[in-house]
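User: Please predict the structure of the protein below. I'd like the answer in structure-token form so I can feed it into my own downstream comparison script.

Assistant: Understood. Taking the following sequence of 276 residues as input:
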Amino acid sequence: MKTSALVRFRPRTLFVLALTSAISACGFIWPFLINTKSVPLASICFWAASALAVSLVIIEISNESLDAKSIALLGVLTAIVAALRPIGAGAVGIEPMWFVLILSARVFGSSFGFILGLTSILTSALLTGGIGPWLGYQLFAAGWIGLFAGWLPKKVRGKPEIFLLALYAIATSFIFGVLMDLQFWPWALGLDTQLSYIPQGDIVTNLHRFIIFHFATSMAWDIPRAILTSTLIIFSAPAILGALRRTKFRAAFVTPIEFLESKSAAIERAKELKAL
């Protein structure tokens, strides 16, 4: 017997997800796309579009195949990730939340990981008062990390799987730093420094300034984040992955209830339980 994924996006939802991700991507890279002096107006428009996109995705997902057990598990994992996030308060990259998000998305799939990224960041922001113009960026950054974690090769198991997840944690730690700097850089330095964003400047000049700004200011956060997340995965992944997989299998999320089970199906189920 095979268990299905917790959430499966229908074609319409996949289209909405792709569209909203594209809108949000524009929200990150707008300094290289728009030549305007009206920087605040441009950013506000993109942030509003991202917030609307998140709402639209959540509405679409709520109409999918999430059953009561799936929602309960999503709530538990959301609470865990949201509780872990304030531990380091972002200080020098001490953010232990990411390893739970990555491992959960690895087991329950890309769509579940995307939802978990959104709900975790939103819950954490509500609990800690971290609501501001940056929230839309953080929501999609976390959602994308969960989404792509669920797309990692499924057949990889054992030590290679742990190594793969650790590499993914390192890569996404640096990518998250780049994404957060993209939404922060245009306002960070004003307009009078050698690394400032230049309204109506050409793409090459602004990109060069951003790269220098990022490597000069963010490595003290990105490197500790990468080390902490990958280390937590290396030491905790075998136990946590096993527990999450047993939960997924035994709860039989979004699978029909079978009151009568054939002998062959029962034998197959026993073999799968033994392998967990």
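That's the full token string. The first helix runs from residue 11 to 29.
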